[in-house]
Design goal:
alpha/beta; five-stranded parallel beta sheet; 239 residues; five-stranded antiparallel beta sheet; Arc Repressor Mutant, subunit A; Rossmann fold
């Protein structure tokens, strides 16, 4: 492992329909060493979340194509990423709705730069300090030992290639969440191969033949059409 490599900056997705607000937030966050991805619509925000895997989402409620409430709900189905809602609405009922849907914090416009940055730092600290994925994952008859790179099915060890194991392990560590094909390729092969989703499909097919009783009707690795894949739980630490 290389040493002396600077820590990767946190990546923040800004979803706001106002161009001026996107510019202001981008400039502010960039000055404080955050990497910024922007979206002007709800659908664009969801696509950016899948492609760029942000560390935090700043979400405006008034988006042109869908409500920020719906974006928050969909994001929660896919990722545990921290969500900071930014809105001009200050009703207590709206705040409660968003927090119940999974938003992590709510800030009302207008707000100071200092308050925004403090809330971002708090959410990122909380996210970083979250419990790690279990090192041994069980799902049905499968038992995936991450550190030892071994997988068992009803006690019998299965033989996966290094790449097959990396794919399966990443999906299992994000169980019940949709993982985009591009993100999965990036995690396993690196950013320069991000468009090579055909190779990924071939490997998924090989994995299914090894872990599924009926590869044509899988119960562990499901295809999310047009997006990617989802590993189905329930998942819990092995006893």
């Amino acid at each position: 492992m290389e040493t002396g490599v600077p820590e990767k900056p946190a990546r923040i997705l800004v979803a706001d329909d106002e161009e001026l607000m996107r510019r202001l937030l981008t400039a502010t966050l960039a000055r404080h060493n955050y990497e910024v991805v922007v979206a002007a619509t709800g659908n664009e925000a969801l696509n950016c979340a899948l492609e760029h895997d942000p560390d935090l989402v700043i979400l405006d409620l008034l988006l042109p194509d869908m409500s920020g409430v719906d974006v928050c709900r969909k994001l929660r189905e896919w990722r545990p990423v921290p969500i900071l809602v930014v809105s001009g609405r200050d009703e207590e009922s709206m705040k409660i709705t968003l927090l119940d849907l999974g938003a992590d914090d709510y800030i009302t416009k207008p707000f100071s730069t200092g308050e925004l940055l403090a809330r971002i730092r708090a959410l990122l600290r909380r996210s970083t300090g979250a419990p790690l994925s279990p090192v041994v994952i069980t799902a049905g008859a499968l038992k995936i030992d991450i550190p030892r790179r071994r997988i068992f099915q009803t006690g019998r060890e299965l033989r996966l290639t290094r790449t097959e194991f990396d794919i399966l392990a990443y999906l299992a560590q994000n169980a019940n969440c949709v993982v985009s094909s591009k993100m999965l390729v990036q995690k396993v092969w690196g950013l320069r191969y991000v468009d090579d989703t055909q190779t990924l499909r071939v490997h998924i097919g090989h994995i299914r033949k090894k872990i599924e009783s009926a590869p044509g009707d899988p119960k562990y690795i499901l295809t999310e059409q047009g997006i990617g894949y989802r590993f189905v739980g329930p998942v819990a630490p092995a006893a």
